[in-house]
Amino acid sequence: MDLGLAGKRALVCASSKGLGLGCAEALAAAGVDLVMNARGAEALLGSAQAIRDAHGVDVETIAADITTEEGQAKVVAAAEGVDILVTNAGGPPPGVWSDWQRDDFIKALDANMLTPIALIKALVPGMMERGWGRVVNITSQSVKAPIAVLGLSNAARTGLTGYVAGTSRQVAAKGVTINNLLPGIHATDRAVSLDTGVAQQQGISLEQAAEQRAASIPAGRYGTRQEFGATCAFLCSQHAGFIIGQNILLDGGATNMTI
Ligand code: NAP
């Protein structure tokens, strides 16, 4: 299927690895020029070059912490005029509900709620003026069904979801869609870090923790960044202009619910 995206330009945040990289790769495969971001320059430069080599698109890289005002300013300056925005950042650490302090919540809100909101506010007005735009926020399955140890994530991402629900309906008439992609467990560094926590807590090996988790997923396995990226590229495509304010779960059936 031709996604109709050749020649468009996208900012993909937190994209040197994992799900953000999957989105960057899938958009590049559709002919989209990229601004890629991550904190660490080495992996970012390596991933950007691999995408240039594979797809022949232009890729600009901005090494910065997207959760800081300074980082956002650098990234937004480079991304001026983009047609597509994919927001993403690292997820908050796991823990116990009674231990988190105000500072922990402020950090999680900054990273996983206020950063995507700041980027939407900076880049969506230009999309509206030009009459076309796509925003995809990488959130989490925890928005649909809370994950006990990830209370900081549950809280921050649900706040973003409420903002998107209201905002997406105000910008849709200008040709701009805003939707959220909700990953369940995917085979990335984040999954390794979550499984390491389970292994330590239960006194089992990392492999056992991963097998145990995979067995709890109806699909019987972890998702891949390629599957995730393909869904993101479709949501950004010309075919997806009538999908507004939705929360699309990619979890191998793990969240047990009817609708
Ligand atoms: P990952 O494999 O750990 O990759 C994270 C990427 O984001 C890296 O490129 C990292 O590069 C970059 N990054 C992290 N913090 C950043 C920051 N402050 N500023 C700029 N770049 C940053 O993680 P992932 O699995 O792709 O997860 C992406 C998001 O989806 C996270 O919020 C995660 O919580 C959420 N999620 C993931 C899963 C899963 O199973 N993988 C499930 C549910 C939700 P640097 O470290 O160099 O900055």
UniProtKB/TrEMBL annotation:
Pfam families: adh_short_C2 (PF13561). It comes from the Bacteria. Gene3D superfamilies: NAD(P)-binding Rossmann-like Domain (3.40.50.720). Belongs to the short-chain dehydrogenases/reductases (SDR) family. This is Putative short chain dehydrogenase. It comes from Phaeobacter porticola.
